[in-house]
Amino acid sequence: MGDLNQAMIEKYRTSFLKEVEANVEEGEWVKMCMQCGVCSGSCPLGKFWNHPPQEIFMMIRAGKREEVLTSDAMWMCTSCYNCVVRCPREVPITHIMHGLAHYAKRLGLTPKNQPTAEFAQRFWNNLLKKGRVNELKLGVSLYFMNGIGPGVKTAIKMAPVGIGMQRTQRMSAMELFGGHAIKDLKGFHAIMQKAQELEALRIAQYSVAPRPTA
Amino acid sequence: MTEIVATNETILVVGGGISGMTAALEAAETGKQVVLVEKRPYLGGRTTQLYKYFPKLCFPTCGLEINQRRARMNPNLTLLTLAEVTRIDGTPGNYQATVRLHPRYVNENCTACGDCATVVNTEFADEFNYGLSQRKGAYLPYRMAQPQRYVIDPRIIGTPEAEQAKAACQYNAIDLDMTPQEITFPCGAIVWATGWQPYDAAKIQPYGYDRIANVVTSVEFERMADPNGPFGGQLVRPSDGKPAKKVAFIQCAGSRDRNHLLHCSRICCMASLKQATYVADAYQDAADIRIFYIDIRAIDRFEDFYNKVSAIPQVKFIKSKPASVTVDKDGNPIVNGVDTEGYHRYAEPFDLVVLAVGMEPAVPKDAFPVPIVVNRAGFIEAAPENGGVFAAGGASDALDVNRAVQHATGAALRAVQVVNRVRGVGV
C-alpha cells in the first residue's frame, strides 16, 4: 500500500488535481467547482468537518495532496445529498467525498481510528463471510470497538432492545455462533474474488499507464 | 372596431417595453409605417418600474418621457395597448398578423381626471408594484402612463361599481360595452421585443422567498425605493414597517445555476451595487449592507461603478453563495453559509434580504405564435430560419437597458431592410 502511495506521488508530482481526476470516482468534476460555498453551508454536519467540501476542492487544485488524503473530512459525509441537490454546477459532491475516502484507503492514508472507516471495514469483513450481514455480530463488535469497558457498558444499555428483538423473532442469539449464510456461499466467494481481481487490475492500470498531459 | 391601416411594407413590433419602443420609433423615424403591439395598458414595460438606472443613478422617467414624446409626435406609429399577437402567417415581406385586443373600457375621451377611481372601492393587487400594494378597480397604471388614460379592471365589469364609475365620468370616456376583438393586418417584417421577466424566486427553495416576509426580490426592492412606490420610498420591511438598515443582497439568485437558469443574467451585480446605494443614502452611517456573491461581474465602465460602491464604508462584500435563509422569532431573516475567504461559517441576521433574481424570457419556449429559433435558455437566436422576424432587447438575451436599446436599434435596421426589399429599393 505504501508503495502505491509513493508511486502515485512520483507520477502526479506536479498535479494532484490530475491524480484525483484519474483515480477518484467522479474526480473529473472537481475542476467544475466555482467556489460558491453552497455545499459547505448546506452540509448538516459541516461544522464538524475540518475542511468543508468547497475547501477540499480548492485544496485539491492547490496541490495539498497530503492534507487532503489524510484528512478525516470526507469520512464525515453521511450521504444526505443536500449539497448535490443545491450545487449550482451539479457537481456530484457526495460521490467525490466517498471516492476520496476510498482512494485514501487504497493508499493506506486513512486516519487512525477513524470511526466511519472502522465501521465500513467491519461491515465489509462481516458481509464477506456469509454473504449476509450478521447484524448481531456486527453490533456486538461495534460495542467493543473502543475496548472491553465501554463495550460492556453499551451491551448492558442495549440489552432490553436485544431481548425485545429476540422475543419478536427479529433476531436470534444463535447468530453469535456462525450465523446463517446465503444459499450458494461458494459461488458468492468466487464472485467476490473475481471482483477483487478486476479492481486490483484497474488500480494497477492507474499506477502504470502514463496519462497524456494537456 | 379598431381599424389598422397596414401594408406589407408595415413593420410590426411586438412588445412596447424599452426595446420595442426603441425599435418602433427608430423604424418610424426612417419613414416606415409601424404598428406597435403592447400587452400592458401602457408603454415602457419593466423600465417604468425601475427607480434609478445604473451606473449613472439617473431616473428612467427622463428617457421614457423623451420616448413617449417621440411616440406621440410620430404619425407613422400606430400603438395598440392591451393587445397580444396570437398568430403570424406568411413569409418575409408578406406576413399576416392576428392581434387580440383586450378591452380597456375607457376610450380616447379620458382626461385622466380620476373621478371614476373615487367611486370605485374594490381593490386588487397592484401589478406595477409586484403586489406590494393595492390599486383600485378603476386606475391609472402609473403616474406617467402613456397613453395617459385610465383602465377599468375587467374583474369589476358587470358589478354596480362599473356603472358608478361610468356615471362619475364627465367626459363620456367609459364604455362598458367594449368586448375583446381580433384584428388581422399585413406586415412585411416583425421585431420581436417581448422582453424578460424576473425568475420566480419561490423556486429557489432554500432562500425562503415564499415563506419569509422580509425576503424580497431585486425588482420588488426597486419599487420599494421609489418615492412613488408602495412604501413612499421608505426602505422598510414588508412584515412590520421597521427600517431596513441592515440589508443582505444575495447574488445569482436563480442565475448561473443548473437547478434554475443556466445563464448569467448580467444585470444583477450592477443592480445590487446600485441598490446598495439606496440603503446607504437612506440610512447613512446606520446602514449595514452586505453583498453575498460568487464573483462580481462589472465589466468595462461598470468597474468604475463597482469601485465607487466598494469605497462606501457601509457596504461589505462577502464571497459566498449563501446556502439558505432562515428566520428568527422577530421576523429577521438569517443568512446562512460558509465564506470562501477562510471558510468561516456564518449565520447572520438581517432586517431585509434582497434576492438578485435572474432574467428569463417573458415568452416561454413553446409559446411563440410564430416558428422561431431559441437557445437553450429560451432567448431568441439571430438565425436565418427566423426570416423576417428579428429579436430586439431582452427577448434575445439577458441585457441591461443600455444594451437592449442598442440591440433594438439594430433590429429596427434589419426590419427596415426587409420592407425596403418589398418596396424594391433594397437588395
UniProtKB/TrEMBL annotation, chain A:
Alphabetical keyword list: Iron, Iron-sulfur, Metal-binding
Entry-linked InterPro entries: 4Fe4S_Fe-S-bd (IPR017896), 4Fe4S_Fe_S_CS (IPR017900), HdrC_iron-sulfur_subunit (IPR051460), Helical_ferredxn (IPR009051)
GO cellular component, one term: plasma membrane
Domain named 4Fe-4S ferredoxin-type: residues: 20-53
Molecular function (Gene Ontology), one example: metal ion binding
PROSITE patterns, per database record: 4FE4S_FER_1, 4FE4S_FER_2
Top-rank taxon, per record: Bacteria
Entries under PANTHER family matching the protein: HETERODISULFIDE REDUCTASE RELATED PROTEIN, IRON-SULFUR-BINDING OXIDOREDUCTASE FADF-RELATED-RELATED
Protein name stated in the entry: 4Fe-4S dicluster domain-containing protein
Species of the source: Thiospirillum jenense
TrEMBL record, chain B:
Keyword Isomerase: no
InterPro entries tied to this protein: HdrA-like
Any one Gene Ontology molecular-function term assigned to this protein's record: metal ion binding
Keyword line: Iron, Iron-sulfur, Metal-binding, Oxidoreductase
Superkingdom as given in the UniProt entry: Bacteria
Transmembrane segments: none
A Pfam match: FAD_oxidored
The name this protein goes by in its record: CoB--CoM heterodisulfide reductase iron-sulfur subunit A family protein
Species, as recorded: Thiospirillum jenense
Biological classification of the source: Bacteria, Pseudomonadati, Pseudomonadota, Gammaproteobacteria, Chromatiales
